[in-house]
Amino acid sequence: MQNIKKDYPPGDFGVWIIIYIELLTFGLFFLGYIYSRRSDVELFNASQLLLDTRAGFINTLILITSSYFVVKAVQAIKTLDFKKANEKAQRWLLGAIGLGGVFLIIKMSEFVAKYQDGINLSTNKFFMFYFLLTMFHFMHVMLGMIILFNLYQKTKIGGYTAKDHRGLESGASYWHMVDLLWIVLFPLIYIIR
Amino acid sequence: MYRFTKIWLLLISLTIFAFGIGWFKIASSFLIGLLLITTFAKGSLVIEYFMGLNQVQNRYRFIPTIWLGTVISLIALGYYL
Question: For residue B18, which of A32, A61, A5, A8 has the smallest C-alpha distance?
């Protein structure tokens, strides 16, 4: 059987322009981090030891699982009958939003712990990158959750069908991008030394 | 749909591997290389299957993959050189 490929990525094309721009922006930050590290490897390694690797690890599991829930929501709309599809999608989206919330709580507790230890943006170059990158990503998680909540609201009124679910795919793509960025960010900031 | 569950489990397994390197502080040059390869693999799985770009024309599929490959390669260069 011939596998016919679609002409355009899932969702609105506009969201993909945003995704490409975000990837480029974060990519530059990642490279800024790794090349700044070269100028003072010992400082970066010593500072990295002050991070909570477990929190970073748990947050990675959370975002990956949340992304998986969003995939399940999209699959439900694509494959199940109308009423059941929206009900299932609702549950998956609610789960994804909940996990996003847990991510934010864990990340916030990391920020608070650092501030209580007297560590902030101006402590040193490592922490400048740490706060800049993770706070910037944090804002993207918040925006992603707002988008997911809007998708959830629409599934409550049966707003998506197997033929028309472009809005759902757009939001899902954005959420997967947030996950993709964290997949690179976690080893870069917490592990590589 | 079962395929997505397998991909999710694979992503979880690779994340546990990454955490192991950090937790046990065994970040040798070899393991960091392996970590970067698995990070590329994880990112590719998200791009291909979660984002669904394996079902679209290659020109759109390859943009995020090239981004990921370039970023990981430059991180590797910054780390090793």
Answer: A61
Cα torsion at B74, A120, B26, A56 (round to 10°)?
-90
Enter the ipTM.
0.95
Chain A interface includes B51 (CB < 8 A): yes
Question: Pick from B12, B2, B1: which is nearest to A74 by CA?
Answer: B1
One-letter amino acid of A117: D
Write out pLDDT tens, residues A56-101: 999 999 999 999 999 999 999 999 888 789 999 999 999 999 999 9
A contacts of B64 (beta carbons < 8 Å)? 19-20, 23, 180
Three-state secondary structure string covering A113-165: HHHHCCCCCCCCHHHHHHHHHHHHHHHHHHHHHHHHHHHHHHHHCCCCCCCCC
Domain ranges of chain B: 2-80
Candidates 2.40.50.100, 1.20.120.80, 1.10.3720.10, 1.10.1140.10; CATH matching A53-191 = 1.20.120.80
With CB atoms and an 8 Å threshold, state whether A191 touches B75.
no
Structure tokens at A187: 């080893």
Say what the pTM is.
0.95
Minimal Cβ distance to A184: which of B19, B39, B51 = B39
Q: How far apart are CA A185 and CA B65, in angstroms?
A: 16
What is the residue whose two structure tokens read 């409550």? Answer: A156
Which amino acid makes up residue A42?
E
